[in-house]
Amino acid sequence: MSRDQHHSSAPSNPTRRKLLSTGAIGVAAATAAALGTPAAAQDNSTGVTAQLSPEPTSEFTGQCAFITGGARGIGYACAEELAKAGANIVLYDIAGNIDTVNYPMATEQNLATAKSNIEALGVKCIAIKGDVRDSTKLKESVARTVREFGRLDILVVNAGVTQVGVLDEFPDEEVQTVIDINLTGAVKTTQAALPIMRRQNAGRIVMISSILGRLGDENFSVYSSTKWGLIGFAKSTALAMAKHNVTCNALCPGWVRTTLADNDYMLNAISPENPNFDAVEAAAEESYHPLLMGAYEPVDIARVVKMFCGQATAMITGEVFDIAQGQNARFNA
């Protein structure tokens, strides 16, 4: 799954995040480079910590990333990480509430603030108020992107909504909204971008699925089904676009601290006796997170998105990559 604006990578309760260490400096450096974080190595003989060189911040200079659901949460975090590495950004977000979604969506102010924050990083940013259910708006927005930036290198298919509860109690309209945004919206977004990437003979597509796209959940039946479908769509897109030098991969986050999860509707449904995000986070850590941690922060997911847009994954496509507190270790091979 996926707070209104980007959070730092430090968890709200640092004691929940246990550090996994390795004695191999090379492994630490390689991992840090792939995820866009500086690595540190300690010389055990002296106790001195040496900072290893971080990756160049200009990896994506001159490139352009189009990100749906970009006003907050994972989408905004992706925009920030890519912008820090030099990419120009297009933020596409509905920036308004939907009658059939039971929690607050991003606002126009969120979108405006996100644009200002991205531009403060020294890159260009376009903010577009748009709905992924609207093919015409998506095509117009992609055309504007190419007019202003001359290219479209990265597409992050992130926009999504959820519902929670008993399947047969969901109103038809709410069910259709989840399907139309999470799955059909992903198809329409990709349709708008593919002609440009095909013409360029280059591009990276990253689709944000969910750990619930890899396993069922009785409380998220429709959401889960759309995220399963998104994985199939990502694999099919990878096959269709491989000959055009375009990669497409799906990422499956677990519990992430965003407004999709941290809102009254969700918390009252998940934990009616204690509808508090920190309480739910602690329960998750205790009951089903193999890694001794609570929720990820949006930036944790964004760093992996960045990895799948960089050179380290240039020859990887059709992959499904779990970012799920180790829950995927329980899956069948």
Layout of helices and strands:
Blueprint lengths: L24 H11 L4 E4 L4 E4 L12 E5 L4 H12 L3 E6 L14 H12 L5 E5 L5 H15 L4 E4 L14 H29 L2 E6 L12 H21 L4 E8 L10 H7 L6 H11 L10 H10 L12 E4 L10
Helix pairs in contact: 2-3, 2-9, 4-5, 5-6
Helical stretch tally:
9
* Number of distinct beta strands: 9
Order of helices and strands: HEEEHEHEHEHEHEHHHE
Helix-residue proportion: 25-40%
Query: Structural class per helix/strand content?
Result: alpha/beta
Percentage of residues in strands: 5-15%
Q: Can you describe what's shown?
A:
By secondary structure, this protein is of the alpha/beta class. Helices cover 38% and strands 14% of the residues. It has nine helices and nine strands. It has a seven-stranded parallel β-sheet with strand order 5-4-3-6-7-8-9, sandwiched between helices. It is globular. It starts with 24 loop residues before the first helix and ends in a 10-residue tail after the last strand. The relative contact order is 0.16. The N terminus is likely disordered.
Question: What are its keywords?
Answer:
333 residues; alpha/beta; two-stranded antiparallel ribbon
Brief rundown of the structure:
It is built from 9 helices and 9 strands. It is an alpha/beta fold and 333 residues long. It has a 7-stranded parallel beta sheet, with helices on both faces. A two-stranded antiparallel sheet has the order 1-2.
